[in-house]
Amino acid sequence: MPTPSTDPSPAGRNRADVRRNERALLDAAAAVFVRAGVHAPVREIAAESGLGMGTIYRHFPTRADLVVAVFKHQVDALATTTPTDPTDSATDPPYQALRTWVHRFADFLVTKHGLAEAMHSDQAGFENLHNEFVERLLPVLDRLLTASAAAGSTRPDVRAYDLMLAVGNLCIGVETFPDYHARQMIDLLLTGLTRTDPTTQEHEEH
Amino acid sequence: MPTPSTDPSPAGRNRADVRRNERALLDAAAAVFVRAGVHAPVREIAAESGLGMGTIYRHFPTRADLVVAVFKHQVDALATTTPTDPTDSATDPPYQALRTWVHRFADFLVTKHGLAEAMHSDQAGFENLHNEFVERLLPVLDRLLTASAAAGSTRPDVRAYDLMLAVGNLCIGVETFPDYHARQMIDLLLTGLTRTDPTTQEHEEH
Amino acid sequence: MPTPSTDPSPAGRNRADVRRNERALLDAAAAVFVRAGVHAPVREIAAESGLGMGTIYRHFPTRADLVVAVFKHQVDALATTTPTDPTDSATDPPYQALRTWVHRFADFLVTKHGLAEAMHSDQAGFENLHNEFVERLLPVLDRLLTASAAAGSTRPDVRAYDLMLAVGNLCIGVETFPDYHARQMIDLLLTGLTRTDPTTQEHEEH
Amino acid sequence: MPTPSTDPSPAGRNRADVRRNERALLDAAAAVFVRAGVHAPVREIAAESGLGMGTIYRHFPTRADLVVAVFKHQVDALATTTPTDPTDSATDPPYQALRTWVHRFADFLVTKHGLAEAMHSDQAGFENLHNEFVERLLPVLDRLLTASAAAGSTRPDVRAYDLMLAVGNLCIGVETFPDYHARQMIDLLLTGLTRTDPTTQEHEEH
DNA sequence: AATGAATGAGAATTCATTCAT
DNA sequence: AATGAATGAATTCTCATTCAT
Question: Where does the HTH tetR-type domain lie (chains A, B, C, D) (predicted)?
């Protein structure tokens, strides 16, 4: 809804308007995803955002586009921060860096209702989501895993792809079954990954 | 109403027919579940079975009833065979028994498209499914896990419930992502479960 | 299915069997009609009777046939007892006889959940029901009404048909709205039938 | 799209369109209700209106909402005109005012196929309909009846609620049975309501 | 004659997506 | 660009009626 007196542009909405709408949409979608999962009705997101449904479709033609966009920021954080942090790699042995990152990844998934599930959805329109994760995060995890294996801390025969999916999977059901301790299971997996040096392993577990 | 000694059935359509139909229904449902997941439309199962939709509702009032029935046989096998097999417990140390059962459990889940997913569904009508699994299988796993921990082979601080859900989770996505090796991830988890004994871990993996 | 030891007839069930079934059906239907109205599912009546649904259809091809049969006894009572009772007509003036019969008719309707409603149903298969009532009871009411009018107790310009439907109508809703006093309304109608305030009434009618 | 000063609507489809559709829906529903009763399938109303089923649900979430809306105008007329008309109360004695209103009420019901019936429906979604009538019209009738009783024209022991339901009931079946004269029966009821020959009437009631 | 399993049309309801304004 | 009303396919579930045994 343009405010004629303040906007002299004859063409209507300007770039700022559009960007503002997109932001509102993303915030609304994030809120709704938390509340009702990533399969929530489009109308609900529209209502939350205060914008029309048509606007959603204009900005994000498929649901996956929206989901990807919603989590892009957090994915970016996971993708960029860790591997470039020099202090981390200085102080932490590679295995510690791997553990830390996996935990952050898990925390991210666990706090997004339905996201872990959606990562595997073969529903039309969700391939993008999986691809996004693979493209952005797999290289990061791969680097960490390779470094850890190179240091002799972890087995060299485990692929980052499998590990990423496995961790994602272990996060499923956290909301549905409050009694399920995903964190501990992930730790089990990580421990299983290590190369048998007892001193390294025993005191890590929580 | 006379009860001829040879035919206890008082009704027209005889028992054999009815059982045959129920079998057809279960087979059809199994096939459709593989093809389209356990959320497949009832109509599709009816079409696959060659029977009417009403017949499905007669036999299995809720979807979960059908799902449970479809997998009952396999669940029964998992629930009964293992813990009572004396030769197993004689030859295998407790940890081996645990591994074997977990692998069988995983094989079962992996071959049923959508089953692992359905186990977590909070959709109406699927609670039964989760309950069925918990009620039937959790005691078995619990016994195996307790025995293994008692033998000092595995950590005593891991609950069977978490382990069951975790294994179930790790099986998710096997069909969707052919490149995902659930088996290896499950082995990682099992290894992580052991008490960090270097000799135990190295040669188990496949 | 014959009872071999007690029934030597080679042709199967004898007349007594069939009649017994019909009676069971009628009793069951009466019970279900009270409980769930005359639109109750056929299956429910079958279950109540302990007989099969097919048997119901054999005995009563349409639902109205069943409804008519269920109430036949009571209709018979209304149709035959009153007009032939000599003591009644001796002690009661004609108007009193009319009132008494109308009350009995109303009591009959009120105690059959859904019957008053069904009398008007234009649903396929219910014409019979209306016809049955008209054919059996209208002559009775007509006789009573004519006698009462002849004695100068009631208006001569009211037809028995209208009165019968009106009384039937006034019985509707007794179960649904416990606060509705059908009895009093019927009394109002009967009172209105008597010649009372000439100035108010005569010129209004259309 | 800037908001022209003449159109305050922020939305695409403008208000006039929406209102036109709602009107089309109401007209279609009224027509279908006459033809097939208020239980007619939603799809039929949609077809009659030329609009989609979803549109009906958008405008009228429950069937009762639609029914209420269809008859709202007439209910409004009955609810507001009469009691505030000063000339009526000046020229008519209270009993005449009562008669007039009851006739108007009956005319309304009689011309709406299935409405009188629906008023009593205990089907889910029809409570509102009954409530609407009671809430809107009962106070009006109560005022008229009380005034008439106060003037000594009618019996003081009859409640407006019973009278309203009774009149409604007497209107049932007008379309189904063309030979049924609801009008006359209502007049009978009203006449029975008047205080005339005390000896005949008072002691009969139970 | 009796049975009740099977059938499938019918009705309600939801929601992704389009498109006139 | 934005809107949100309109659409109607898709899905679930019920129950009258048929018919093989």
Answer: 19-78
For C194, phi then psi, to 5°, come to -75, 155
Q: CA D53 → C1' F7, Å?
A: 8
A92-151 pLDDT tens trace: 689 999 999 999 999 988 877 667 777 766 565 566 677 788 888 999 999 999 999 999
* Contact state of B205 with A157 under an 8 Å Cβ cutoff: yes
Query: May I ask the CATH architecture of the domain B12-61?
Result: Orthogonal Bundle (1.10)
C1: its two tokens: 């299915």
Q: What length does chain A have? A: 206
- For C148, the 3-state DSSP assignment is helix
Short-list C113, C107, C111, C108, CA closest to C37: C113
Assign domain A62-202 to its CATH superfamily.
Tetracycline Repressor, domain 2 (1.10.357.10)
Q: Which residues of B80-99 are buried (b: 16+ CB within 10 A; e: fewer)?
A: eebbeeeeebeeeebbebbb
**Shortest alpha-carbon distance between residue A26 and chain D (Å):** 22
Chain C residues whose CB is inside 8 A of the B11 CB are: 52
**In the structure, do chain A and chain C come into contact, i.e. share 3 or more CB pairs under 8 Å?**
no
pLDDT in tens, A8-44: 444 455 778 888 999 999 999 988 988 888 889 999 9
CB C170 within 8 A of CB D192: no
Contacts (Cβ under 8 Å, ≥6 apart) of B163? A185, B102, B141, B145, B189, B193
Q: Which residues pair with C194 in a beta bridge?
A: C154
**Where exactly are the structural domains of chain D?**
13-61, 62-198
How many angstroms separate the CA atoms of D26 and D39, rounded? 15
| CATH for B63-202 (1.10.10.10, 3.40.50.720, 1.10.10.60, 1.10.357.10) | 1.10.357.10
d(CA A24, CA A46) in angstroms, rounded, equals: 10
Separation CA A110–CA A99 (nearest Å): 16
* CATH class belonging to D62-198: mainly alpha
DSSP 8-class letter at D152: T
Tell me the average pLDDT across C110-118: 73
Q: How far is the CA of D52 from the C1' of E21 (A)?
A: 19
The structure tokens listed for D80 are 């507001």
Comparing C172 with C190, which gets the higher pLDDT? Answer: C190
CATH class of C62-196: mainly alpha
Distance CA B20, CA B100 (A): 34
What torsion, rounded to 10 degrees, do the Cα atoms A95, A96, A101, A104 define?
A: 140
